[in-house]
């Protein structure tokens, strides 16, 4: 579903990713583990074409997306949950959740949203509130719901467990476990120390100083 080959990325003249290669098979859950500053977020942002690359290729479902416009991913069935959530603060929760469906002009938007609200009823309960009115934990759930709406085939989740209370971490694990049991999504989850993702993933990649190795 996702294949990264020999990817190198520099930011402001500093090399952040060095000849990175990894792949996520269809319907597989993959962990990306590394300390803060190791390059996890840079790799995920590069996969989503939010930053450019110096060398290498990125393929999603066999299609070369190395130079694609970022918005194309919603049409490819790829969802992204940034570490910092990136919700539109003045928009309602419902509008934030629906944003990828609008971007992709999907015919089944209503069905997708209904499915997400069934899976994450906590988001449905606050759907009419503005994103800025939510707690950090609630915003995490909304960002995950938004990624679900887009990610019918592949989801890229950057530090979903970071900075949230233990009870919410457990809830996030439950949601992802449900998704895993359904067996129709590929997911890449980044985490600093693999405390929570180990039970979810089929394999783990470790990133250190911009280089990736398989465990």
TrEMBL record:
Transmembrane segments: none annotated. InterPro entries: AAA+_ATPase, ABC_transporter-like_ATP-bd, ABC_transporter-like_CS, BCAA_Transport_ATP-bd_LivF, P-loop_NTPase. One of its GO terms (molecular function) is branched-chain amino acid transmembrane transporter activity. The keyword Iron does not apply. The keyword Nucleotide-binding applies. Residues 2-215 form the ABC transporter domain. One of its GO terms (biological process) is L-amino acid transport. Keywords: Amino-acid transport, ATP-binding, Nucleotide-binding, Transport. Belongs to the ABC transporter superfamily. PANTHER family: HIGH-AFFINITY BRANCHED-CHAIN AMINO ACID TRANSPORT ATP-BINDING PROTEIN LIVF. This is ATP-binding cassette domain-containing protein. The lineage of its organism: Bacteria, Pseudomonadati, Pseudomonadota, Alphaproteobacteria, Hyphomicrobiales.
């Amino acid at each position: 579903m996702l294949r990264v080959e020999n990817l190198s990325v520099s930011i402001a003249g500093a090399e952040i990713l060095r000849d990175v290669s990894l792949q996520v098979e269809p319907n597989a859950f993959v962990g990306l583990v590394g300390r803060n500053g190791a390059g996890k977020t840079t790799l995920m942002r590069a996969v989503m074409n939010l930053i450019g690359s110096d060398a290498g290729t990125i393929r999603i479902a066999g299609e070369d997306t190395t130079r694609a416009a970022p918005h194309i991913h919603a049409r490819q069935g790829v969802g992204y949950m940034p570490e910092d959530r990136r919700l539109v603060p003045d928009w309602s929760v419902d509008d934030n959740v629906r944003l990828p469906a609008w971007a992709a002009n999907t015919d089944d938007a209503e069905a997708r949203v209904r499915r997400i609200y069934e899976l994450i009823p906590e988001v449905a309960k606050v759907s009419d509130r503005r994103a800025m009115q939510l707690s950090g934990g609630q915003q995490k759930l909304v960002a995950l719901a938004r990624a679900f709406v887009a990610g019918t085939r592949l989801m890229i989740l950057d530090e979903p467990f970071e900075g949230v209370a233990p009870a919410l971490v457990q809830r996030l694990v439950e949601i992802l476990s449900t998704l895993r049991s359904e067996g129709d999504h590929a997911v890449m989850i980044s985490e600093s120390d693999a405390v929570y993702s180990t039970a979810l993933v089929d394999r783990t990649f470790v990133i250190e100083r911009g280089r990736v190795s398989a465990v």
